[in-house]
Amino acid sequence: METSEILKKVRKIEIKTRGLSSNIFAGQYHSAFKGRGMAFSEVREYQFGDDVRDIDWNVTARFHRPYVKVFEEERELTVMLLIDVSGSLEFGTQVQLKKDMVTEIAATLAFSAIQNNDKIGVIFFSDKIEKYIPPKKGRKHILYIIREMLDFHPESRKTDVKLAVEFLTSVIKRRCTAFMLSDFYSPNDFTQALTICNRKHDVVAIQVYDQRAKTLPDVGLMKVRDAETGHEMYIDTSSKKLRRAHTAYWMNRQQQLKDSFTKSNVDSVSIATNDDYVKQLLMLFRMRS
Known about the structure:
Elements: H1 3-32, E1 38-45, H2 57-63, E2 67-73, E3 78-84, H3 98-115, E4 119-125, E5 129-136, H4 139-151, H5 161-171, E6 177-182, H6 191-200, E7 202-209, E8 221-225, E9 232-236, H7 240-263, E10 267-272, H8 277-288
Parallel strand pairs: 3-4, 3-6, 6-7, 7-10
Antiparallel strand pairs: 1-2, 4-5, 8-9
């Protein structure tokens, strides 16, 4: 992709997603993703019902009457985007490619984050850590992230969610909010790694999928190719048995994924490429508020 074309696309994504994050998500994001903890704010006189553990004994001794420490929530967050850049994301039969939707969702979350003065960083992963962009603040940083998402060429086409989760656990020392954007086509089980990671951080899984992964159309003989392995084969979509087996495989896989997120206590949402992701994200935010 040429530089001018990339910049045009970056600008287009910025206009759309910045508008969404300021008009729709500002309050929702704020209440759904809390700060790291409580920070000392001030002292005031003790009032009936205050927790005696909050008494500031130094100030109390000085003024000869009880004073308590007042704490307020630390709002500033570190937000990490874990973005799957494997081959299977370069697929789409509906409105757009999975990769395009992931880019838009990530940009919307990034602009929501900077409106709350949060730092934002990115981990691009396939079955290896392709690139790590450390957390920083500001619009310039976000535009750099969007440009990378649009024009990033991974070394590998395969996926390893477990590896990405373990990398997040080890590289980010302080608690962060992490959004993992993927179709979650990962050959190995990542439940334990996700459980450990979610104890340290606040992880949210956003699955992006194409409708054809769920149901096959009846269009006769069709050539299909595995985007991650390159393997090609012909399938007969006029076979009801094949179409049922395809849907049954999808339902079983989704249940396994749901079980994995439930066990690791991770909030999740599944968004099809022809879905309104704004509506889906708002539902996720409200569920967490």
